[in-house]
Structures are given as structure tokens and as C-alpha cells.
Design brief:
Layout: H1 2-25, E1 41-44, E2 47-50, E3 55-61, E4 64-69, H2 75-84, E5 92-93, E6 98-101, H3 107-144, H4 149-182
Antiparallel strand pairs: 1-2, 3-4, 4-6, 5-6
Amino acid sequence: MLKDIISAAEDNMKKSVEVVRKEFASLRAGRATPALLDKVTVSYYGTPTPLNQLANISVPEPRSLVIQPWDKSAMPEIERSILKSDLGITPTSDGTVIRLTIPQLTQERRTELVKVIKKKAEEGRVAVRNIRRDVNDSIKAKQKDGVPEDEVKRGQDDMQKITDKFIKEIDEMLKSKEQEILQV
């Protein structure tokens, strides 16, 4: 019974870590990755559509992206969406493909990005801790329903070990992303 609660909490914690991983992937670190464009949506025939569903996105060089739309008529709308996004990159088009050149990061921008990823990591840790707190509360409630005290204690200890594992994973992701951003 307690195992079900703990395994459900572990699944939720995995999802929280995945959210942090996706947030980190969408941050620009001076290196081009197709994940930079994950948040860009294009108005395609009046429907907001993710860019990666309208075009092939490739990385020909470490600091450039090439977007090859499957429907050439969508190119102006794709360019407009990229300009409107918070990427701060101006697209260049030659009629068949759109090229994005990722500018070199300034030291000021690097320190700003490090602050952002630390904040995202802390949000992830807080989400994991909130799950732990909720589970511990429900485990304590089970004790009132007649579950033995030693089982409750064991359940809380297991929950703490799982929490520590996921927080450590977030910290490791933060450390590697920080190194990636600060690398010149």
C-alpha cells in the first residue's frame, strides 16, 4: 500500500526532472541545437503549430541551424515566428531554407544564463521536495489508519532516499549546463 504511494511519487519526481532537462535544453549556450526552436510555434493556416512539425531542422555547423520547411509557402510565417520569439536571432532566407546563426555569447549574457539555469534547477528541486512532503503527509495519514509505525518510518526513509537521488540528478544537470555555458 505504501509502495504504491512511493512509486507514484517517484514517477512524478522523474517528470519534474524531465521538465528541468527540457528547460535546460531550450536555453541557448552559444551552441546550436534543434531544441532551441522547441518553444517556437508558427501560425500555419491559422493554427498554432510547433516549428518542428513544419520543417526539418538540422545543425550543419556548431553555431548555425538550417530550417527546411516541407511547405515553402509557410516560410514567411516561420521567419515571423522566429523574430517574435525570445531567441534574439534574426533568420536569413534564400527561398528554400532558413538559416539561423547563433551569435557568440558575451560574458554578461553567460552570467545571466547561469542565474536563469540556477533558478530553473531550484524550481525543480522545490517541485521534488513538494512531492516528498505530500507523500510523507499521506504516509502519516496511513499511520492513523492502522499502518504500523515502523512501516511508516521505513516508507519515509525510502521517500527521502528517492528524493535525494532526484535532487542529486538535478544538481549534476545544473553543473554540466553551467560548464557548457561558461565555456568560451
